[in-house]
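Propose amino acids for all 247 sites.
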């Protein structure tokens, strides 16, 4: 008998961070955890301006013949705010405007998602920037359910924007440590990353889950803050000088 209801839908978590940026878990440990401790079919590893962990995670899952499939991706820092790129092998140049970045992503075969939009808690796309992406046909989805504090603040406006513009509603836990993985997810028809890609383009996803509790947020806040304030800036400085030295 074919599955019905929720059993017929796959489940994905599309915004995860690892030690390659400001997360607190390795790509391999993350994939192992998802395979053995969750019901997720698909994940997207989307480190800040870095695709190396997503490629490692994909290879690790394939090597072990895991159920879970890994979408290569990146959370790009644009001059207008963060932008998620899914299904990309390389990282686009950082600090360009959102439209130029989105055009690069689409040329590379990727899909653009607006993470935690409208919130002041983190570097997020504004209404104006998102409107520009929509009018240019560059934006496919909006993170309407994000387990973090930033996601809670932006949810009502994000929901309205996605509905008004016919964009896919994306759910993501945005974890930086293992215990937060899968708190929020994206349900979709099918089980594979190819199924998910098609469903995003037809805007037929469903976001579900729960917000992180204050205790859960506090547990990851201090160690994650240290990485985001020290590790990421240092890496960007090194890349900046390396790029200029090469030029």
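Proposal:
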């Amino acid at each position: 008998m074919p599955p019905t209801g929720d059993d017929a839908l796959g489940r994905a978590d599309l915004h995860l961070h690892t030690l390659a940026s400001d997360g607190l878990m390795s790509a391999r440990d993350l994939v192992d955890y998802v395979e053995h401790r969750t019901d997720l079919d698909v994940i997207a590893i989307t480190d800040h301006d870095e695709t190396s962990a997503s490629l490692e995670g994909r290879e690790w899952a394939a090597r072990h013949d895991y159920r879970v499939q890994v979408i290569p991706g990146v959370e790009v820092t644009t001059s207008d705010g963060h932008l998620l790129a899914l299904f990309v092998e390389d990282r686009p140049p950082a600090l360009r405007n959102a439209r130029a970045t989105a055009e690069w992503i689409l040329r590379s075969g990727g899909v653009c998602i607006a993470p935690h939009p409208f919130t002041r808690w983190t570097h997020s796309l504004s209404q104006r920037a998102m409107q520009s992406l929509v009018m240019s046909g560059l934006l496919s989805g909006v993170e309407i359910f994000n387990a973090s504090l930033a996601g809670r603040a932006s949810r009502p406006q994000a929901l309205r924007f996605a509905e008004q513009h016919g964009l896919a509603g994306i759910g993501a836990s945005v974890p930086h440590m293992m215990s937060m993985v899968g708190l929020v997810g994206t349900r979709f028809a099918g089980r594979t990353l190819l199924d998910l890609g098609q469903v995003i383009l037809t805007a037929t996803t469903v976001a579900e889950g729960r917000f992180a509790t204050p205790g859960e947020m506090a547990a990851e806040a201090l160690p994650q803050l240290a990485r985001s304030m020290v590790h990421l800036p240092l890496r960007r400085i090194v890349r900046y000088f390396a790029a200029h030295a090469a030029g």
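The chain is about 40% helix and 20% strand. Residues 214-246 form the longest helix (33 residues).
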